[in-house]
Write a structure and sequence with these properties.
The structure is a single chain. This protein has one domain: MetI-like (MetI-like fold). The protein is 72% helix and 0% strand. By secondary structure, the chain is mainly alpha-helical. It starts with a helix and ends with a helix. The chain has 10 helices and no strands.
């Protein structure tokens, strides 16, 4: 119980800080993230001998301010991560409910579609789809949403079949409640806890996927600051300017860790509530 509360506090504070940084990126940025200054290229961070306060985290190979690019990259990662999970939850929940309630033929078709997608590695499916659609933020949200819906569909399908056997659902059916009312009043509310935990954990996974695709050059457009794009650009300067690789990599790791801690805290907290009979 205490461990779950501690995880919620630590993860929540970290995620809140990162979210606020993304929301107020234009205010927090010390410079235009796309502005180039070749005279100031590859300047080291401020804590080194040659660092300056003008560029606290240094500059990249084009003289662009690393701190400003990282702050704006926060917004891109969070928007893509959250939007793609929302798309996955919506489509996956609808598919799972359809499979569990619409008859054997529809159930078989939906489950076969879920199995077909599960047979493909998510990264490979994302790479293929992103390469076809082209690099853009809306396309990337669509790509990641497509790769993640089957997980939610499978969970919703299994949970719905279990919830349909509960006494309160049987009682509602005996009183003449229709299927739509049962889904809205008894099934969906009891799915919210599981979906919330799964969605929170999936956001971190989607941020990693976005960074991977941007690193490969098929995610966010090169003109848009992103952590994955910064990692890709820094490969050539790993030994002479290691901060260009370390800083965005650290940002990705801390963000995903914070989201994972928050998801674990939610899971333990909701699990503790369920043991007391609170749904």
């Amino acid at each position: 119980m205490r461990a779950g509360r501690a995880k919620l506090m630590i993860g929540g504070m970290l995620v809140a800080f990162i979210t606020l940084m993304g929301l107020f990126a234009p205010i927090l940025s010390m410079a235009d993230p796309s502005a180039q200054d070749l005279h100031a290229r590859l300047q080291p961070p401020v804590w080194t001998n040659k660092g300056t306060l003008a560029h606290p985290l240094g500059t990249d190979e084009f003289g662009r301010d690393v701190m400003s690019r990282m702050i704006h990259g926060t917004r891109i990662s969070l928007v893509i991560g959250v939007a793609s999970v929302v798309l996955s939850v919506g489509f996956g929940t609808a598919a799972g409910l359809l499979a569990a309630t619409a008859g054997r033929r529809t159930e078989r078709s939906v489950l076969q579609l879920i199995d077909a997608q599960s047979a493909l590695p998510p990264v490979l499916l994302a790479i293929i789809t992103a390469a076809v659609l082209g690099p853009s933020v809306p396309n990337l949200v669509l790509v990641l949403g497509i790769t993640g819906w089957s997980l939610f569909a499978r969970v919703v399908y299994a949970q719905t079949l279990s919830l349909r056997e509960r006494d309160y659902v049987t009682a509602a059916q005996a009183l003449g409640a229709g299927q739509t009312r049962i889904l809205a009043r008894h099934i969906l509310p009891n799915l919210l806890g599981t979906l919330s935990v799964l969605a929170a954990l999936q956001v971190g996974h989607m941020i990693l996927m976005e960074s991977s695709l941007s690193f490969l050059g098929i995610g966010v457009p090169l003109s848009t600051p992103s952590w994955g794009g910064m990692l890709a650009d820094s490969r050539k300067y790993l030994w002479i300017a290691p901060w260009l690789t370390i800083l965005p990599g650290l940002a990705i790791g801390v963000t995903v860790w914070g989201i994972s801690i928050l998801g674990d805290g939610l899971k333990e907290r909701l699990g503790a509530r369920n043991t007391t009979g609170l749904n």
